[in-house]
Amino acid sequence: MFCVIQKIQKKKQDPYGTHKEIIVNETKFGFVGEEPKTSYGYTYSDERFERPILDAYKISIHHSYRENGKVKKKQWVICTMGYYDFIDSWYGDHYIDCTLKEKLNEMGIDEDTFHEMINAKLEPLVKQIELEFQQTEEYKVKKEQEAILAAHRAAEAAFNKEYGQGEYEYCYDVFGTLRNPVYLEELKVKKKVEEEYARRSYEESFKRNYSNYSGEGSSSYYTASQSNYTDDEKKVLHEIYRMASKKFHPDVSGDDGSKMKFLTKLKEQWGL
């Protein structure tokens, strides 16, 4: 039992070559009462590369055997693939699974054995076709388009992570060209406002927690004279103070000095 690949000729040229260009398209979107925004997507040109090679390959499994002293042959056609099909797909996309199972039962082989026979015969042909295709202008354009789209996806993911999901397409097109600098500046301002709001919220929370902890303004506030830490414990507290003061100094943290003031009060409580 062995695989046979028979070269034949198609009557019509394959019309489905690679699109010759990636084209930017614009879509306006907005809710009622809002000024619509323009998003920049992409599509492909209608014009495609011609695929003039008409070669096709019929893949089949042959089996020769003797019956009553005579040589007989059986043949199972698996599929037929055009020259360019080997560029865009593999042979498994060109047969029907249920029909293949019936043929495998007739042949008396399992699917792994079947694929081993096919691949052993097809591999040299596929390599030859791929090498030939790599010399064409279509291949060059196809690789350029793949690189453009890969860069676009990476830039889009990074931008949306920083400014919000779906925002990239309102600023840049698929080629990375800035189309709406005004909206980009709005996003930057919005981000700064959000960061400032988060910073202020953190500081307010810090102050509230400090007030609750220290009992500021009440008799529960412990002064330095009430400290009863041992000398060894004070050494540890002094190290904590030293490390924290480096982090919370206004020149480092960039705040209004509230963190450092709180740390100084802790130092007094600890009796340092």
Can you characterise this structure?
By secondary structure, this protein is an alpha+beta fold. Among the domains are: 2-16 and 51-135, no CATH class; 189-270. Helix content is 49%, strand content 18%. The protein has a three-stranded antiparallel β-sheet. A two-stranded antiparallel ribbon has the order 2-3. Helix 6 runs antiparallel to helix 8. The longest helix has 34 residues, at 181-214. It is elongated. It starts with a strand and ends with a helix.
Structure summarized in a few sentences:
The chain has eight helices and five strands, in the order E-E-E-E-E-H-H-H-H-H-H-H-H. It is an alpha+beta fold and 272 residues long. The longest helix is centred in the C-terminal third of the chain and has 34 residues, at 181-214.
